[in-house]
Design a protein that fits this description.
Elements: H1 3-24, H2 30-51, H3 56-92
């Protein structure tokens, strides 16, 4: 892998890690995080392929396939653990809504 490809690869890894953390910690809307993460992953994987002197059509195909697969796998793992964490919170009763969020709650 050549020098510029390494830079794109590091950025690709940071996008995947950031997408995972954003889903797990609910830093933003999941749809927004997923959409931005997938698009950035595809773009960066295409740039990695172009930096390795591949043809443009080959780079686009590689970018769509590998960028989409890696970001899809990252999203699946993040959402799985996020859902398990939410399920555990509901089961233990730790996730009770605050009084100001519930309009039917009695004012004391």
């Amino acid at each position: 892998m050549q020098g510029l490809a390494w830079v794109f690869f590091v950025l690709f890894a940071l996008v995947l890690a950031g997408m995972y953390l954003a889903i797990r910690r609910a830093w933003a809307a999941p749809g927004l995080v997923a959409g931005a993460g997938v698009v950035l992953s595809i773009i960066l994987m295409t740039l990695i392929s172009l930096a390795q002197d591949n043809f443009a059509i080959q780079a686009i195909i590689v970018g769509i396939l590998l960028g989409g697969l890696f970001s899809g796998a990252t999203l699946a793992v993040a959402w799985y653990f996020h859902s398990n964490e939410m399920r555990a919170r509901y089961a233990s009763g730790d996730f009770a809504p605050a009084a100001e969020e519930d309009p039917t709650a009695e004012q004391v």
